[in-house]
Amino acid sequence: MTDPDPAPWPGPLAGVRVLDFTRVLAGPSAALALADLGAEVIKVEPPGIGDETRGFPPHRDGTSHYFLSVNRGKKSIVIDLKTPAGVALARDLAAKCDILVENYRPGVMDRLGLGYATLSALNPGLIYCAISGYGMTGPLRDRPSFDIVLQAMSGALSVNGEPGGLPTKMGIPLGDLVGGINGPIGILAALYERSRTGKGRLIDISLMDGLTNLLGYVAQLAFFTGEDPTPQGSQHPNLVPYGIFPARDGGIVVACLTNAFWTRICAALGMLELVTDARFATIEQRRDHRAEVNAVLSTFTSAHTVAELVAIFTAHQVPHAPILGVTEALAQPQTVAREMVVEVEHKTLGTIPIVNRPIRYVDAEQPLPTAPPVLGEHTDDVLADVLGLSALAIDALRRDKIVA
Question: Any transmembrane segments, and where (predicted)?
Answer without folding.
Answer: none
